[in-house]
Design goal:
The chain is an alpha+beta fold. The protein has helices at residues 22-35, 37-56, 66-74, 100-105, 112-126; strands at 5-6, 11-12, 81-88, 91-97, 130-138, 141-148.
Length: 149
C-alpha cells in the first residue's frame, strides 16, 4: 500500500478516513432508530462489509493463505484484535478480542459492523459472499464463524 499522505505535495494518496469511535455509535443509533432494529442491523452489517471489501482490495487474488491475508487486511481496520482459529475455503472461524464495537454500542448488541467488516474482507479475498454466525464468549470477545454463500 502506498503512503497515506504525501508530504511533498500535501495530498492524501489512499482511501482512508479516520473517525472517532463515537461515529459507530451514532451510525448504529441512526440506522436502528430510522430503519428499525432488524433493518438497522442489516444496514450496519452492510456498512461494515463495504469497509471490509475496501480493506481487501490490496490483498485479492491470492487465496492460498486466507488467515495471513485476513490478518493483514484486518490490521488496517482497528476494530479489535483478530485471531484466526480456522481458515479453509469452506469455513473461517475468527475470535476478536477488545472489540471497539462492544465498547461503543454495548455488550448486549450483536457486532454487526465488525462481522460485516470481516465478511467483506473475506468476500474481497475469496470473491464470493459469506454468511456469519456470532457467539459471545466474554465481555468484549466474540467468535465469528463464516461460511461461503
Amino acid at each position: 500500500m502506498e503512503d497515506f499522505y504525501d508530504s511533498d505535495i500535501g495530498a492524501q494518496t489512499a482511501d482512508i478516513l479516520v473517525l472517532p469511535s463515537s461515529f459507530l455509535k451514532t451510525l448504529w443509533k441512526e440506522l436502528t432508530e430510522g430503519l428499525g432494529q432488524i433493518k438497522g442491523q442489516e444496514a450496519f452489517f452492510r456498512c461494515g462489509e463495504t469497509v471490509g471489501e475496501s480493506l481487501a482490495a490490496n490483498y485479492s487474488g491470492d487465496t492460498g493463505q486466507i488467515d495471513a491475508l485476513l490478518n493483514r487486511a484486518w490490521a488496517e481496520a482497528g476494530l479489535g484484535l483478530l485471531f484466526v482459529l480456522e481458515a479453509t475455503p469452506e469455513r473461517v472461524v475468527c475470535k476478536v478480542e477488545s472489540l471497539l464495537e462492544v465498547n461503543v454500542i454495548g455488550i448486549s448488541e450483536p457486532c454487526n459492523f465488525t462481522s460485516g467488516c470481516i465478511a467483506g474482507v473475506l468476500k474481497g479475498i475469496m470473491q464470493h459472499p459469506y454468511s456469519v454466525e456470532e457467539d459471545s464468549v466474554g465481555e468484549d470477545v466474540r467468535i465469528f464463524t463464516f461460511n461461503p454463500v
